[in-house]
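HOLO CASE FILE
Compound: P-hydroxybenzoic acid
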Amino acid sequence: MNSPSISQSTQVAIVGGGPSGLLLGQLLARDGIDNVVLERRSREYVLGRIRAGVLEQGTVDLLRGAGVGERMDTEGMVHEGVGLASENRGFRIDFRALIDASVMVYGQTEVTRDLYQARDVIGGETHHEVENLRILDVDGTRPSLEFELDGKTRSLQCDFVAGCDGFHGVSRGTIPTDVLREYERVYPFGWLGVLSQTPPVDDELIYAGHERGFALCSMRRSDLSRYYIQVPLEDRVEQWSDDAFWNELRRRIPAEAAERLVTGPSIEKSIAPLRSYVAEPMHWGRLFLCGDAAHIVPPTGAKGLNLAASDVYYLWQALRRHYHDGDASGLETYSDTALARVWKAERFSWSMTRLLHRFPEQTAFDLRMMRAEMDYLMSSVAAQSALAENYVGLPY
Ligand code: FAS
Ligand code: PHB
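Model generated. Tokens follow.
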């Protein structure tokens, strides 16, 4: 490896220019804390990803507080409830009546776009297409990153490293294997997702359990819909024509929704695997993990992006106290604080996935338990309130 030809320093080095890294960078910059974002892909590539669609109230408040909520408030859709269905019978969970709360439907792609534009405005330093990034000396007092950029080897010295580089990043691997504890469940199915320039089938989302498998009706705008169906892990997206997708979706959702469904050509089609995963601790020396770098949830509970937001909130507050008040207590407790909320979201996401999906090994008794759980949910205000408070987001 060539010795670095260019060296610089910053206060916080952020690995990853997805929602976690960009939101942290925005919050730190507004507090005068210098930071540099290093992203492996191009900006266009990052902005081409189609991912999450639902923002918890905590995420909405954080984006507004970071000064990036304007377009979300103009173009986002406030949802005061969500539809659930079992074997084509639908019912509604009324967030407003049950717990006086709501969520915001606004795509992660748009959140990321807003964050990039805000970073342009504040002149935040961001490097794209960074290669071969290494994280060094996080167990010391002056960690550094080494990487290649534009064919030159560079070194970035810093006080702290924020590992915001997602599940396949390098940050988590910096934690010694005898320290890192991993918890994982890989699900025996995936989600086949379609984006279509069609009006959504309903004003709100519909999560549907069915003997043929799970389906989800979501949206991005009043003329842009997002749909998912559960498929076997071995399925390939090429196997699924648009017509096959629409016909399978119709079979799994409530009859009145199936009749209203407006279909059209898919403008994006992909299969995402599902897993539950948590890495502990989320802090090692001067390294702090945020978002998918530390945890993954099955998207059934719409928690992935929202957990990234609460991690960022905790780390931002801790760094702010360190730099402004000389108080390191927030940094010392960051991992425990973040993990407390992460595990509750993991539980909710796992329980929603178990309630709404068909698992290969399910017995007749298991299916009766699923039906009883759905019947209880349909008939109990207490059960619906519990689901509502988890779905809209538990407090930070
Ligand atoms: P991200 O993965 O978004 O960002 C990490 C960034 O780090 C990426 O831009 C990556 O290129 C970069 N990076 C990686 N390695 C690097 C390196 N060595 N050096 C520099 N940069 C590096 N969540 C939901 O709530 N609902 C959903 O429906 C949903 N659907 C999803 C579908 C898919 C296919 C995936 C993969 C995830 C989905 N998620 C969903 C979860 C998703 O929204 C994440 O929770 C969210 O992107 C987390 O943001 P980050 O932590 O920033 O990680
Ligand atoms: C989406 O719109 O992509 C979406 C919404 C809710 C989920 C998962 C995905 O739970």
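CASE NOTES: The longest strand covers residues 181-196. The pocket of P-hydroxybenzoic acid (ligand 2) is lined by residues 52-54, 205, 218, 226, 299-300, 302 (CB under 6 Å).
CLOSED: yes
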